[in-house]
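Hi again,

Forgot to attach this to my earlier email, sorry! This is the prediction with adenosine monophosphate bound. I've pasted everything inline since the attachment limit keeps bouncing my files.
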Amino acid sequence: VEQIGIHDNFFELGGHSLLAMRVVSAVRRELKVELSIKELFIYSTIAALATHLNAAGKGGLFLPSIEAVSHRPVHIPLSFSQERLWFIDKLEGTIPYHIPAAWRLKGDLNKEALNQAFKEIVNRHEVLRTNIIDKEAEPSLLVMDAEGWDLHMVNDLWYSQSNENLQQRIHELASQPFNLSKDYMIRAHLIMLAEDENVLIVTLHHIAADGWSISVLVKELMELYNAYIERRPALLFPLPIQYGDYSLWQRNYLQGEVLKKKLTYWEHKLEGVAVLELPTDYLRPVERSNRGAVLRFSIDKILTDQLKALNRHEGTTLFMTMLAAFKILLHRYSGQEDICVGSPIANRTQKEIEDLIGFFINTLALRSKVKSDMSFKELLQQIRDTTVEAYEHQDVPFEKVVGAVVKERDMNRNPLFQVMLVMQNTPKVDTLYLGNIPLASEEFLHDTTHFDLSFSFSESGNSLNGSVEYSTDLYTEETIKRMVLHFKTLLGSIVKYPQQNIGLLPMLTKAEEHQLLIEFNDTATEYPKEKTIVDLFEDQALKTPDTVALVFEEEKLTYKELNEKSNQLAHYLKSKGVKEGILVPICIEKSVEMIIGILGILKAGGAYVPIDPVYPEDRISYMLEDTQAKIVVSSKKSEVLLPKKEGIEIVDVNGEWIMSRSELKDNTISTLAPNQLAYVIYTSGSTGKPKGVMITHGNVVSLVKGIDYISLTDKDILLSTGSSSFDATTFEYWGMLLNGGKLILCSEEILLNSELLKEELQKREVTAMWCTARWFDLLVDNDITVFEKLKILLVGGEKLSEKHIYKFRESYPSIKIINGYGPTENTTFSLTYDITQISDSIPVGRPLNNRSAYILDRQQQLVPIGVAGEICVGGAGLSAGYLTQPELTREKFVHHPFSNEASDRIYKTGDIGKWLPDGNIQYTGRIDDQVKIRGYRIELGEIESALLLSGQLHQAVIIAHNNKEGSKNLVGYVVPKGMFDKEKIITYLKSKLPEYM
Ligand code: AMP
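Structure tokens for the complex follow:
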């Protein structure tokens, strides 16, 4: 044990398992005692270990030793790892598997000595002069002699002119492909920059080398060079075996029962392992390429010391701590709990191969359950056990593990794990010299990677050097820089609060927090926050009494007329007891009376509840009950559709006697305040009952006043197409009527016919319009010229189709097009994005003035830019909650986690999104199974509940199915009770649910 230089406390050792492995193999070899790595970790000091071994009276060898095969067969097999690489080489070419290294040599170099030293190395290590012959059914190794090998001299002064030129040349030399059936597996080039300055580039193929091999190579190169110039024999031990002996040994040993037993462990460990879904900057290509880049960083002495102290305390190695921190980072970035990370392991536990150049390195897939509510310490202990166990089973080649565990290969992802953590622990060669010339490492361009991400660390003095190799197919440098920052911040949090739940460990820097909370939400703007809809409308009617406010078919009302008519209704409603806080359902077909009705209710102090006359009776009944309505505003035409209920008076908005009382045309005197309810709009609820979202006057005003996502003036003419039960009408109605614009209501007939629609838009000189996303797609596909005369178009309600938006952008570059995003609960729009640029995916944008947005994880922590979380919105648009559902309100409208005001709330939208670096948000999907079907927001649970209530089914499952046209259909799977009559079920559903059925 002393011989290999172990400290008394094993855990003083940083790094990977290397020294552990060497202790174990030394004990096994020298003492002929079976010792597991786990035992080594349990009995963490040498004294405790010795006592344990004595007490256990252990004996027996672990791995059979490798011996030189004196009569080698004609067919020498490849090692398992070589075989895999050989396959990959056929598919991808060699470049991704080159191992290049470069050094700058300043001084009087003896080139012949260098050449001879290399030649001797090629001679000593057969693997460097071994080709792969694949004439037979199975490929085999064929050893050449070293004579043909030579150091290449590169002598062209062009390269010395600039560092870029030199870099380019190094890159070219290192990237020349290897022919595995013909070439030496090592190349060396000497670029002569000046008489006394050279750059040495050595390129090995991974099939014949690994990281460890570079240390062996450098050590031998120094000795052989020095021996040559000192004219003495080199002090190198003869190599007891060659790589071919190892591959024969491996093939012989790792088969049958031995292999099966070892594989069983891995199969058990890795069964069903999840694919890591980290957020990426670019869409993952169908087939992965090896394009990559490297970012370097360091971890300072203070933090490194703190990490080491933590290790001492926890009985773990630096690798384990880094792995735990890395897994937390991946967990926090992906939201996943099943996290598997790959890590290379030197796999040189046997003395015989320690000094060989060759491909011995193996990869371990280290899988952990990472849960937000476990403490760092808990995770670390779990990782320690996993790692130590994996060390015990390290000699099963990774390719065998993949073969046993992975049933279906995905061509654009690595199998078993997609990211790596590497703790460099190749033996250190102190200062490197060729004679008296120091070997100074030369940095060079690195542009390949085998993994999505690979974090790498090495100890350097008292600190740690880190680097991230990343796939440039997936990530930008900016994202990787942020990731490194988060990793470092996490490490800092870990040493400070090792007992803390990992979901709560601080990961963002103060500057990032400021950016997310303050800079991206810098939306405070003046707006008439003390005014109600009624105040603003009446002001407008005074200002522009004779301007046309409202149009439907042939009917027109000026602001004055609309004001007076709604006043008349308001006076009547007031006389019937309508006042502040009273909900008044309004069930009217599209008409000017519908707007008169709405305004009348508001002016009476009440809040309107739009009921679409096409709703099934059951749904209407439910809404009437839920609102405890005493009065319903309706029309002659729609009145008949209302269920007759005792105690409910139906007021005909057009009742002759209301409207003829001319003395009641004046404004009502109201005590309305901005925090009083303006309307309640119902949306789908998963329990089977829709929920009423309560919106105040102030909420509405903040949507259309003091805004900058759109400019609304008295020159605007807007065509409103939807039913008043859609919350987009909030924008349409009040966007126009509180800004002096002209509101045009569109009839059903026109809506369904793009020719008529185009005619209407042009005839009425419409300037602005809101479209739900799928309807927009349909219009673009059918007749894009519908929109040609518009000035501004808002599209949204669900994820936009890039294809359609871009077609529109190209056809009409001067029409402004805005992505409008937001739930009813935050009054129509929470975020908007002015689509000026073409990109892979259209963001939903940034918060409206006086509104705010946050992206949070399950612990309600801020997630960094680029990381997906739940979009939460708040500010002036935030609803007062759900009518009669305080519990659901508490669940969705939670305390604002970043506000000092106890009453501040934010709404959890259930939408998943991520911040882009410029402060826009990208929508990526839903947390739950809420979907949009033709603009309707539907919780699939609502339909399932309704189905079950039919009493005809045992079970029901509804899914939204994307059809070929890109829109969705609902598909139901049911377990019927007795005979199943599909038509009956559908009729039943139609009677229960709105028209989306
Ligand atoms: P609603 O309350 O009916 O307006 O529906 C709100 C939900 O529709 C949001 O929570 C989103 O899931 C979805 N949504 C609305 N606008 C957009 C948009 N522009 N892009 C993506 N999804 C949207």
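The two ends are 76 Å apart (CA to CA). Residues 1-16 have pLDDT under 50 and may be disordered.

That should be everything now.

G.
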